[in-house]
Amino acid sequence: MHSDPAIIQKAIRKYIVVGALLLVFTAITVAVNRVHLAIPLAITVALIIAVTKGSMVASIFMHLSDEKKWIYGALILTVVFFVALILLPNLTVSDTIGKISPYTAAAEHAAAGAEK
Questions:
Q1: Calpha distance 109→90 (Å, rounded)
Q2: What are the two backbone dihedrals, phi and then psi, of residue 3, each rounded to the nearest 5 degrees?
Q3: 51 with 72, same domain?
Q4: 74 shares a domain with 58
Q5: pTM
Q6: Which of the 8 DSSP states describes residue 90?
Q7: What is the residue-wise DSSP string for 29-78?
Q8: Count: domains in the chain
Q9: Same domain assignment for residues 35 and 92
Q10: I want to staple 37 with a disulfide (CB 3.0 to 4.6 A). Which of 33, 42, 97, 113 is the partner?
Q11: Do 21 and 56 contact (CB within 8 A), yes or no?
Q12: What DSSP element (H or E) covers 109?
């Protein structure tokens, strides 16, 4: 943490600006609610406002804007696990446990025919 007064004043100013913007977006949310938009449009506007407010809170108050390396690492890890989970059912297609292989079935059939 920095103890330089100029840096602290700059951080306080940033927190006050973001807090004021959050109040403005809350007022916009209430105003949009009073207008009674069509449901798809209302959902779209509500999601845009919520994503904007959430990103401001996460980046400034949770200090995620200073942690870009960790954020990208978590995002890459999420993509890797997502791809692994999507491809996991493909591994069960080639699973032969409890199934008779066509090669062994043909060999058994040939052996049964040779015994006769």
A1: 30
A2: -115, 10
A3: no
A4: no
A5: 0.55
A6: H
A7: HHHHHHH---HHHHHHHHHHHHHHHHHHIIIIIT-GGG-HHHHHHHHHHH
A8: 2
A9: no
A10: 42
A11: yes
A12: helix 102-115
Averaged over 26-36, what is the pLDDT?
Answer: 91
Q: Is 46 exposed, middle or buried (0-12, 13-18, 19+ CB in 10 A)?
A: middle
Instruction: Note whether 87 and 47 are same-domain residues.
Output: no
Q: Is the domain of 79 the same as that of 31?
A: no
Q: Which two tokens stand for residue 48?
A: 């845009």
Tens digit of each residue's pLDDT (9 = 90 or more) over 44-102: 999 999 999 999 998 888 887 778 888 888 889 999 999 999 988 887 777 677 777 67
* Residue for token pair 């920095």: 2
Q: Which of 48, 66, 84 is the last residue of a domain?
A: 66
- Give the integer Cα–Cα distance in Å for 115 and 91: 38
User: Residue 22 is part of which domain span?
Assistant: 1-66
Looking at the structure, tell me whether residues 59 and 72 fall in a common domain. no
Which are the contacts of 58, defined by CB distance < 8 A and separation ≥ 6? Answer: 64
